Amino acid sequence: MKKIKIDFLAQPTIGMNQSGMKSQLDNLYTHFENDDLLHIHKYNIWEKSSPDIVHYFGMGEGMLQVLKKQKSNGAKIICSPNHWPVDSKVEKLLMKINYKNVIYTNRVTKKFLIDHADSFIVNSESEKKMFSDNLNIEGDRIKVIHNSYGLEKEEIAFGDFRKKYTISKPYALMVGQVGSERKNQKPVLECWQADYDDLYILGGFDNTSYGQKCKRIIDSKSNIHYLGFESNVSILEDAYRNCNLLISPGLIETPSLSAFRALINGAKVCSTDFGGAPREYFGDNVFYFDPYNAKEIARVIAEAIKIKDMKIKFGEFDRFSNTNINKLYKEHYKEILKG
């Protein structure tokens, strides 16, 4: 049987960050590396490629010419946007600018995808509704395939997070780019009390006004520690496995791989409830808050800390296993080629 050739395409800086999008791409690539039907290839600008399908991770990021060329060569285009659409008249107007106007490269790429992608794979039903309502994409072009929770515990070689960072006591964890307003870490830092367990933060740092405000709060509290960016996946996994509490306060999360990893390892999780996506994944197994309400964030964190024994229904997560989720991707690739 002839194999289906699929090029994975992403923004040029994809390899520089251990982002959710990179984790999703790497997970799929590893799973299908020796597949009997699919031949997955990470696109290389120095190589000639004639794929049956281009699976593009992102919805902008300057890959317009590659997408246009492969579309004209007959390839099917699948887009995993990793993008929460905003209902903005200004954004829609800018997307209508002629393709030749490279000032708005990301918006022009987005417009090309909206007009010409054969399929969009989104990660929640709530995201599908946002795409349909705000970007006027027909419902039959949008496929919901939820994110997997990643590798099974027995497939992971755990590092030693505690040893690397000299941690001996119980701890809470927050993961994400410090200084990114979208990650919304400032209200968590502000409400962290002196009698709480130590809070460790993993992620890069944006030297923005918001980032400086976060840094000042971190420096003022002896039980908050910024560790910087951690690229070692085994160390990250060990951090998730051993934390008592993980806090995911982002304004946009679909849902949050770090929260998912901590949850399946038995940690308590406090999560944003924006858009409904986290509830699709986590159900009643986590503590939710409105990410725009600082008082509610403080109250929910305090409640979670008081609870000693969280009853997590692990069986509810079986449908998000790598095996089950990747089957859906394989089926969708075959469906797209059938037309």
Overall structural class, as computed from helix and strand content, comes to: alpha/beta
Give the CATH topology of the largest domain: Rossmann fold
Number of helices: 13
Unreliable residue runs = 90-95, 97-104
Major sheet: order of its strands? 2-1-3-4-5-6
Q: On the 0-100 scale, what is the average pLDDT? A: 88
> C-alpha Rg, in Å?
21 Å
Order of secondary-structure elements: EHEEHEHHEHEHEHEHEHEHEHEHH
Net shape:
globular
The CATH class of the largest domain is: Alpha Beta
According to DSSP, the number of beta strands is: 12
Q: How big a fraction of the residues is strand?
A: 15-25%
Overall CATH architecture of the largest domain: 3-Layer(aba) Sandwich
What is the CA–CA distance across the termini?
Answer: 19 Å
Quaternary class: single chain
Can you summarize the main beta sheet?
6 strands, parallel
- How helix-rich are the residues, as a percent range? 25-40%
Count of individual domains = 2
Structural description of this entry:
With 339 residues, this protein is an alpha/beta fold. The protein has 2 domains: 4-148 and 321-338, 3-Layer(aba) Sandwich (Rossmann fold); 153-317, 3-Layer(aba) Sandwich (Rossmann fold). 38% of the residues lie in helices and 17% in strands. It has 13 helices and 12 strands. A 6-stranded parallel sheet has the order 2-1-3-4-5-6, with helices on both faces. It has a 6-stranded parallel sheet with strand order 9-8-7-10-11-12, sandwiched between helices. Strand 5 (119-122), helix 5 and strand 6 (142-144) form a beta-alpha-beta unit. It is globular, with a radius of gyration of 21 Å. The model is unreliable at 90-95 and 97-104 (pLDDT under 50). Residues 44-148 form the Glycosyltransferase subfamily 4-like N-terminal domain. Keywords: Transferase. InterPro entries: Glyco_trans_1, Glyco_trans_4-like_N. It comes from Dokdonia ponticola. Pfam families: Glyco_transf_4 (PF13439), Glycos_transf_1 (PF00534).
